[in-house]
Amino acid sequence: MPAVQMTAVSKSYRRRGRPPQKALDDLDLLVETGGVHGFLGPNGSGKTTTIRVLLGLVAADGEPDIRLLDRPVPAGLPDVIGSVGALVETPLFTPGFSGRLNLQLLAEAAGVPRSRVEECLELVDLTDRARDRFKGYSLGMKQRLGIAAALLKRPRLLILDEPSNGLDPAGIRDVRELIRRLGRDGRTTVLLSSHLLAEIQQVCDSVSILAKGRCVAAGPVADVLARGATGDVRIRVPDAAGAAAVLAGAGFAVSPPEVPDGRTLLVHRVAAPGEITRTLARHEHFLEELTPLTPDLESAFLALTGDQPPAAVPQGAGTPTAPGSRA
Predict the structure, then answer these.
(1) What is the pLDDT of residues 258-281, one digit of tens each?
(2) CA pair distance 83, 79, nearest whole angstrom
(3) pTM to 2 decimal places
(4) Based on the domain organization, do 250 and 122 belong to the same domain?
């Protein structure tokens, strides 16, 4: 049973005096149960709108097929909303209260035992700072407390919308490691929405790439990366100029690296790397190194969309909304 299934979902926003603007355009999204599923796209691609539709916060156009934990949305949301935790944009807590007290108040409102508060503080590595006031927390600590709030009800599905937004590198590292641990736990499916290429590539098991409100690629991260593969290899030889002439004469496309060093070459669109070795050896050029260039999500994104890739660094903090556990 998939954790999330959306088929042909569209959402348009009407603007006074202007044509309707489509945020989602026949979007298909499938999130299998277990692990961490990345939801990647540049700002404005429709990621947050998708999450809001999924949680019943906004209505999609028409009567699309949307299922959350095998229940139709929005009609079946009351049956499963207790099994969903969500951190959508920046969490709000009472600044003068401690992290522990903020969670205790949320737990009491949700009917969750206080013992679960201590478990969640430990999960997000905030036990040692639980007595400190929320207003004294760093941005990374605030995000981790928001994730703790979303975990209070032991959700089967945890939705995180841009959890690294506005964080410094240390905060990004801490949140990234927390998401890795949650994905390995096996009890919760994590849907991670992000515009950070490194975050998705380093944390997620599978990914869906969104562009202009449509899903342009989906699957295991390794499979999606393979779609951006160019077949380029980097070689290192004692005489780069002589090796380049030999390879060019044999029909290979060759170029120097961005910073030429007289020993390194890039060979493009190589179907069989062994042919490089044989060609050079016949002319008394012997390789010191041959390394296929591993594709990354940026090259995959460009290959799939022909558009600018998502940003590689945070673009600032999100707009404050309700506390971490919206669901």
Answers:
(1) 888 999 999 998 888 899 999 999
(2) 9
(3) 0.76
(4) no
